[in-house]
Each structure stands twice: as structure tokens, then as C-alpha cells.
Amino acid sequence: MMRFNGPRAHKFAESPVLKLRFPAWRSRLMALLILGSFAILIGRSFYLQVLNNDFLQEKGDSRYRRELEISASRGRIVDRHGDVLAISTPMKSVWAIPADVQLSPQQLKQLAAALEMDAKELSRKLASDKSFVFLRRQLPPDVGEQVAALRLPGIGQDKEYRRYYPSGEMTAHMVGFTGVDNKGLEGVELAFQAQLLGHAGSRTVIKDRRGQIVEDVGSVKSPQDGKDIHLALDAKIQYLAYSQLKQAIIDNKAKAGGAIVLDAKTGEILALANWPTYNPNNRERLSGAQLRNRALTDTFEPGSTLKPFAVAQALEAGKVRFDTVIDTAPGRLTIGSATISDAHPHGALTVAQVIQKSSNVGTAKIAAMLTPLQMWDMFEAVGFGQVSRLGFPGEVSGRVRPWKSWRPIEQATMAYGHGISVSLLQLARAYSVFAREGDMVPLTLTRLEANEALPLAPTPVFSQQTVREMRAMLEMAVQPGGTAPKAQIPGYRVAGKTGTAYKIEGGQYAKKYVASFVGFAPASDPRLIIAVMIDEPRGAQHYGGDVAGPVFAGLMSGALRTLGIAPDAPRPESTVAGMQVALRADAQVPAKKPAGKGKL
Amino acid sequence: MARLNLFLLVAVVVCALGVVTSQHKARKLFQALEGEQEKARQLEVEYGQLQLELSTWATSPRIEKIAREKLRMRTPEASKIMTANARGVTP
């Protein structure tokens, strides 16, 4: 940029220093030295920027880049109306790196108070030679904030989740529970683990000196919360099932029991209760007996509740009609070396009365008209000896022996439910054959949307004619003269069958019983199927009709009311004319008791 | 030539200052966003806790107990229940 203008420019060239004469090597040496040091600089920068780049980059990043985990929560489990059965809520766990902790006695006291721990135990934990110790886990978030406010060196916190089960022991067997690491261990928590599980995301950020996030670098992996599971369960019906079952078990001094409510139209499991049960929120001192989901995982010899199947098969095959007379006198029947007997001897009974009075002899005689293969096929078709494919952990298939090895006496006993074992769930599902138009509906744990198609098509088993006749017989069993008048529900037509089976102990039938009742209502258009099983009633009564029947009645009437299903039993005052009169009478005095009905 | 250079110099300085301010503003906004997101997370946690509380208060045993003991409600007998057809009533 400089310009020579005029004579004054020569001053630059006339510096006295330039006039000095030096030996030529001195300038060369200087040039060489300068070149050499440039070469060293370039070499060094090459070393730092290229050869050692990764290491240095990492060191730099570690000073301000942080990878943060974004936690995802586990999905909720809710009932069909959206009521929460299981929910995760964040908790804090407080940890320490003992080597970094230096607390004054005052601070130690504060920390112990905040953690609600004994100061001695706290100092013992802090004296540990481990590099990392948890001081307390699963603390409420506000306690975590208190601890953070103390700003103690070497003490840190982690976020973790705790699972809560608001309905507690009521739904324990259905919902199950998770372990500390948020993994399902039982029930729906285990069966739907894959859907419930959330996937944590992550993001990389730059933090400034004060620990504030300045910006995101790189891509953010967003967390995926676990999906909610909508069970078919109805919390109200579940409560009814649980409370009725519990009461019956206390009243009858029984050992255990189970109850299942199914929706006959859709195959949804509306309730599933077991006793004994446990509180999933506090699982200390749990015993195996409490954990067992009896309705699904235990099989038992069902006894008379199986009679309708053999009889329906005989009706279906045209071997008998509902009014065919079977002679059951004198209440005993000898097949081979074994004798079958009735609890109360009857004389000649029609097929319908055999079901109504629950005659073993009559059923055995009817079953004898069938081939073993016919009976085995029918057992197979209604799902005995097969897992119900619910995906529920621990589900059992029960036991039906291959038909080729059946002896006549075995075929006879199987017809009335001995020598065959089923689970309560299988029994309830099998009755859907009678509660529907002869087809068996696949069961589902999760809620189906209104008008949603069934996940699997129902499988036809019996003809509509057979089912209609069998329904009428099962209705007789609940009426006076049947085995279970206590299962009646005022206002509704009920159909069902009792069962009282002896328990096997050490290969011998002991004087212990399993009382059961399976039925459905309203009989004119069945909506609900309920199966009740009471194990070892030790009270004054042990018959299915006396022990399990009342549970059925209480549960069914409550469930029908909850679902708002109209009564179908003909009652004098509910005839159309009577109703109109009643309505008119009501209309004449509208102001008198308008609020009376709202109080239902 | 000199004027152009001077103009370019001023332009560069102005741009540089602009970059600095916008970077600063971006960080401020980012921090505000962070804060709001944190708040959203906290509200979500609170919502979960409230749901838990709600379902704990609304358990069926508790409702039945209050209905029966405190409010003295009872199930009507079957003979006192009347049903009316909901014909013409759209659900």
C-alpha cells in the first residue's frame, strides 16, 4: 500500500543499519532458524489436529457435552371404564460415593433426618469401602428435593419408578406385579410386558459452567412411553366377585376359592377373583398359596358341573330326548367292579330331571349310549385339556385322558366330572356353549371396542335345538326341586349347574370337597357367565348349591344391575298392563317422591 | 476503493455483532423452552400422582362403606324395582 512519492522516500533505504556490512552466513542462519521453528510449529499442529485429534476432541467434549437419558414411564393398566389398576409414579433414589463424602456432624444429622434414617446407620453406610452405595431407594420426590437442597458433596440422586396398585388385593391375581427393575413378574404385568415397557430416549447437550443446558447437539432420541393396557375387567364387578367370594369363604370356613365372570357375547373376562390373595403394594411375607391364581392355574375335578356336556352330546347325537325316561333306581349302578351312587336315590327320571336333580346314575346311563370318541371329541371341542390361549402366565390345560384307554367305568365317571380335571376358567368358557347359540367364544383379557369383531371366530359345538333344551334343563336345576334354589335371583331367569366333587388325596377320594356352581343369566338372552369354586368348605354345608350357589346369586344380581340389564323373569306386577298402571299411578303423584328413585 | 473497503469492514462488524446477539437470544429462548419442558414433565408427574390419589379414594370398598354406613343407602328389593322400556329414547 505504501507509495514512493517524491524525494523523501529514500529515507527508508538510507537506514544506517542497512549500511552495515555483515557476513552472509548470519542472514542465512537466521532464515534457517526461523524456517526451522515454523517447521516445528507446523509439525506440532499436525500432531494435535490430525494425529491426536480424537483424544483431544473427547477431552474437550467431556468438559461441556453431556449425554442425558430421558426416562420413559411404564404404561398404565386400566379397567374397561378407564379406572386405574396399576400406575407408575416417579420416585427418587439417593446414593453416595463414600470416598467423596465429607460431612460435618451437623450435615450428617440433617441428611439422616431428611432420609428418615438412623444417623448411625447412615454413617455406617457412608463408611463403606465400596465405590457406590444406595442410601435409600424409592423415596417420594419431595424428600429428594430436600436432600438436593442440602447440597452435599458426593451425594446424588437417580430417578426411578414405583408401581402402585390402587385396588390392591382385589385385583392382585389379575394385574400381577413388577419387580424393582420394572419388569413384570406376574399376571397382566408379565403377559403384556412387551407393550407396557417404555423405552428411554437420550439427547446430547452442551452445558455451561453453571450446569445449565445451552443447546442440543446432534439428534434427540425421543423416549417412548409404554402403552396403556385396557383390560376387559370391570372394576365394580370385580369388587362384587371379590367381596362375595371372600364372604362365602369366611362363612363356610373354606380353604380357598375362585370366581370368574365372563361376558357371554364377547368372551371378555369381566372379573376374576381368587382367595387367598395378597396386597401387591406390600409384598413382604408372601406365600405361594397367596400368589396362586387358582382360577387359571389350578385344576380340579369339576364334579356335576360337567354333566350337561355329556347329556347335551347325547341329545345332539339323537340318543335321547329331553323327556326320555331313565331309570335311576335304586340309586346305585355297578359297572365292572365299581359302583356309582347318587347322594339321594331317585326313581325313574326324565333326562331333564337327571340334570335338575343331578343324578350320577342317570348321567352315567346316558353317557353309556355314547362312544368314547364322541365324548372325547366333545370335551375337546368345549376346550377341556387345552390351554385357552389367553397368554396369561401359568395357564394350565387340565387333563383329559386319551379316549382309546377309557374303560366303561371311566367314561361313566367322566360324564359326571370325575377322572377329568379342568380349571375354573375352562369350565366357565365351556358354558359359553350353552349361554350362546351352541358355539364357544374365545376369551379375551383386553377390552373389545363396541361393535369390534371378535378376535377369533367362535367355534360351533352343539346345534341351537340342543342348546335351547339344555338351557331349559339348567333353568330347572335352579328352580324349586332342583339342586340350587339358592342360586335364584329375583327378577331374572337363571340357568346353572351345581357341582360337589370329592378331592383326591394320595390316590384316594378323601372326605374333602370342592363345591362349585356355573351358571348364566338372563336365561332368555344370556349376557353373563359366572363360575364359582369353593375349595374345602368345612362348615355345616358342603354342597355346591348351598356353598357356591349363594355366591353366584349375589354376584350375578349385582353384576346384572351394574350393567343395567333388564329383568326377564315374568312377574305379576311387571306385565305390560301392570306396568302401565304403575306408571300412571306414578304420574299422578309426580311431586310426592321425585327424588326417591334417584337414590338407587 | 478505500470507501468500498471501509463499507465492507463496517458490514462485517455489524454482521458479527448480529450473530452474537442472535446466538445469545437463541440460548435465552432455549433455556426458556427447557424450563417449560421441565414444568410440563413435572405437571405430568403430578397428574399421575393425582390419578393415583383419585383411584385410591374411589375404590369400591370405600364407596360401599360410605354408602352403607354413612349415607345409610341400601339395595332395593326386587319387588320395589320397576323397569320401563326406553323405547323412543336414543341412547
Portion of residues in beta strands of chain A equals 15-25%
Find the CATH topology of the largest domain in chain A. Beta-lactamase
At the first level of CATH, the class of the largest domain in chain A is Alpha Beta
- Helix share of residues of chain A? 25-40%
Largest protein interface, residues of each chain: A-B, 35 and 28 residues
Strand content of chain B: under 5%
Using only C-alpha atoms, the radius of gyration of chain A works out to: 39 Å
Shape estimate of chain A:
elongated
The total beta strand count of chain A reads 21
Features:
heterodimer; A: 600 residues; alpha+beta; Penicillin-binding protein 2a (Domain 2); Beta-lactamase; five-stranded antiparallel beta sheet; disordered C terminus; B: 91 residues; mainly alpha; rod-shaped
Write a structural description.
The complex is a heterodimer of chains A (600) and B (91). Chain A is an alpha+beta fold and 600 residues long. Chain A has 2 domains: 68-230, Alpha-Beta Complex (Penicillin-binding protein 2a (Domain 2)); 235-279 and 296-573, 3-Layer(aba) Sandwich (Beta-lactamase), CATH 3.40.710. Helices cover 36% and strands 21% of the residues of chain A. In chain A, the strands form 7 sheets. In chain A, strands 2, 3, 4, 5 and 8 form a 5-stranded mixed β-sheet that branches. In chain A, helix 15 crosses helix 21 and helix 16 (360-367) packs across helix 18. Chain A is elongated, with a radius of gyration of 39 Å. Residues 572-600 of chain A have low confidence and may be disordered. Chain B has 91 residues and is mainly alpha-helical. Chain B is rod-shaped. Classes of the chains: A alpha+beta (600), B mainly alpha (91). The interface between A and B is medium-sized, with 35 and 28 residues.
